[in-house]
Amino acid sequence: MTTKRMQTIEKIFNKTTSSKQIHEGVLFVENTIGNFSYSKGYGGKDMDSPMLMASITKLFTTTCILALLEKGELSLDDRLTNYFDNELLSGIHVYGSREYSFDLTLSDLLFQISGLPDVFEEGTNSAKSRAIEEDYYTTFSEQVALVKKLRPHFAPRTKGKAYYADINFDMLGEIIEKVTNTTLAEAYKKYIFEPLTLESTYLPEHENDFIPNIYYKDKSIYRPKVIRSSRASGGCITTARELMIFMKAFFGGKLFNKELFEQLTASNKLQATMGPIFYGSGYMRIPLDGLITLFMGKGELMGHSGSTGSFAFYYPIKDLFMVGDLNQMGNAALPIRLSMRLAMTTK
């Protein structure tokens, strides 16, 4: 059975990497106790090659928020006015001629239900389209100013609505720094890297910190300033080996109170451009029993993917963790499709 499962996984990965869109990649699949384990690299990458986590970094930010929640150092009901001055918040959320900027809470950010727009994907000169052309640094206050130029999508906490926007997690990162009185990198180190003994995972802060190249279609681009600007929403570097350690700890209750985490069950479907993805308390949920799979799957994938081709998911029904990277910024759906295929066809 194990050999057959490995052959299936290998076949799926080989088919994925045979695409002209993929120039390099890595896949690592394992069950909780590790007696089933499969890994394979492509294009010179392996389990210990540095990879850009991109939005999987949001799971690190979520970890810190939940750890601080457990310690009673913040509440998800806290308003953003507890952490930011009125000048910064003013005008960030005006919808239907009403201002909601001062009503936003931590929960709105964590669950992606603030309604705030996403400067990475939206606007005539979106951060993504600009990053493809040039490397540039953006401060947090500059990111907020860009958000204010775009229109929110709905009033906060509108029933059944969620909208994926990096600013939600950029703000959570700032809040973590204010609550802990340290840098975000230090908070990640305290709540994640040190407890799990992760030695190859880091949040780049300095010019000499190594940042991998990213592929956009056939072009390899180097964007250290863009990555260092992304911080809490997408700036971390790791390896597939260490990402697996983190994912098991995240869903296994090693980093924060698992009961607390399991109480945060609400999730809402994201905007249509995000396909079948729902968003829960700081992580993606992808149901496998819907129209997208012609109702042929069961259960759901839980975790996160990144816009550069990174992925980290847990499939509870088969007790499988799958992490890796396809390093392709030109098609954000690739890691989602691979993860869904692995979950649905692996016995």
UniProtKB/TrEMBL annotation:
Keywords: Carboxypeptidase, Hydrolase, Protease. Its EC number is 3.4.16.4. Residues 42-331 form the Beta-lactamase-related domain. GO terms for molecular function: serine-type D-Ala-D-Ala carboxypeptidase activity. It comes from the Bacteria. This is D-alanyl-D-alanine carboxypeptidase. The gene is yfeW_4.
